Hints:
Shape: globular
Order of helices and strands: EEEEHEEEHH
CATH superfamily: Nucleoside Triphosphate Pyrophosphohydrolase
Oligomer: single chain
Largest sheet: 7 strands, mixed
Number of helices: 3
Number of strands: 7
Amino acid sequence: MKTDDEVSKIDKVQVWIVSKNRKEVLLLKTNPSRGGFWQPVTGGVEAEDETFLEAAQRELKEETGFEEDVWDLNYSFEFEAKRHGKQCMATESVFFTLVSNHAAPLLDEKEHADFKWVRIDEALNWIKFDSNKDALLFLTRFFETNVDKN
């Protein structure tokens, strides 16, 4: 594991939970102490040997209790972040999973206060960060061209 002084790059994941009918996404509301905003599942790669895919699967289970397969969208982006008060670069890779329509997650109360299913087009109005919006738009284009994921 890297020490704080060695951390110049953070690896993160974003996981979109999509209803099997592909019309809705599950949004999670962060606790007020974490900002109180709506977002998909997010988290970090925690071990040096953990892959982005493994981190996405782990974060999905930790934050929602869902254990469905996760698919890589082959979409990632970089942004500036702070870790332990120091500026660094973060790379975030985007994934998705399909779950039963309106399935209820088991929220990690340390991270999230609420959840809601919303139509994909409405989700853009609820999520805070442009990077999440861009990833959701990429996901919708992915579904338009790849209709065979069940």
